[in-house]
Amino acid sequence: MRTVVWFSCGAASAVAAMLTLRHTPEAELVYADTGSEHEDNKRFLADVERWLGKSCTVIRSERYRDTWQVFEERRYLAGPRGALCTTEMKKMPRFAFQRPDDIQVFGYTSGEEGRAQRFREQNFEVNMRTPLIDAGLTKSDCLAIVERAGIELPAMYRLGYKNNNCIGCVKGGAGYWNKIRKDFPDVFNRMAKIERTLGASIIRKAGQRVFLDELNPRAGRYEAEDISCSLLCEVATSGE
C-alpha cells in the first residue's frame, strides 16, 4: 500500500507533504504538470524537494502538452461542470497513476472542511487524508511555514495571486482577468483571441457573455474571487 501526496507546487500541499513524511517517510510526492503554470514552479519544486529530502514524481498528460492545446483541439473552455483542462491535465494523469489501495493525501486547509467532506462522500472508494485540516492549519499558516523554511514562495503568490494556478485560468472572473491583463498581457490577448475563435466567453455578467476584448479594465474585484484548481476541484466544489 502506497501513501501518495498530491503536490500542486503550492504552499499548502508542500506543508501537507512535510507533515505526512514525518510519520510516513516512504510516502511518494506526485505533481501533475499542466505545462501552463509559471516557469518559477520548477524552482519552487526543487526547493521543496531539498527541504523535504524527497524527490517528487512528475506526471503529465500523454495527449496534450498544455492547457492551450486542450482549448484549441477540444474547442471548449469551461462550463457549468467545470473546466476540461482540469480533467485532461490533472485528473486523467492522476487516474493513470493511482492504485485502488493508495492512501491519498491532499492539501485541504482548515476552513475547507466542507470541500473535503463532499469529496469523501462522492469518492467513497478513495482512502483520503487531510493532514492540514487535522492540524488546524490555514492557508496563511502554510505560507508562513514555507517562508520560515527559507523557501521563496512561488512567483504567482509574490505577484498577488491567491492560488498557484495555470497562468490564465478559465475559472477566473473579471477581477482575475484584469489582473492577468496587467501582469501577463500576452496571455490575456491569446485567451481573448481563442474566445472569439470559439465563439465562447469565460466571463458572464448578469447572465450575459462578456468577451475579454470587451471587458472593462476596471471590472471585477479579484480579492473576492476564488478560483483554486486542484486535482479534484470539480468534484470537491460541486454543490456550492
Commentary on this structure:
- The structure is a single chain.
- 39% of the residues are buried.
- The protein is of the alpha/beta class and 240 residues long.
- Helix 5 links the parallel strand 6 (103-105) and strand 7 (127-129).
- The radius of gyration is 18 Å and the shape is globular.
- Residues 229-240 have low confidence and may be disordered.
- It is built from 11 helices and 9 strands.
- The strands form 3 sheets. The chain has a 5-stranded parallel beta sheet with strand order 3-2-1-6-7, with helices on both faces.
Brief descriptors of the model:
single chain; 240 residues; two-stranded antiparallel ribbon; five-stranded parallel beta sheet; 11 helices; alpha/beta
What kind of sheet is the major sheet? 5 strands, parallel
What structural class do helix, strand and pairing data support? alpha/beta
Sequence stretches where pLDDT stays below 50 over 5 or more residues: 229-240
Q: What distance separates the N and C termini?
A: 33 Å
Strand order of the largest sheet: 3-2-1-6-7
How helix-rich are the residues, as a percent range? 40-55%
Mean pLDDT, nearest integer?
90
Strand content: 5-15%
Specify Rg, calculated over alpha carbons: 18 Å
Please give the count of helices: 11
Shape: globular
String of helices and strands: EHEHEHEEHEHEHHHHHEEH
The strand count comes to 9
Oligomer: single chain
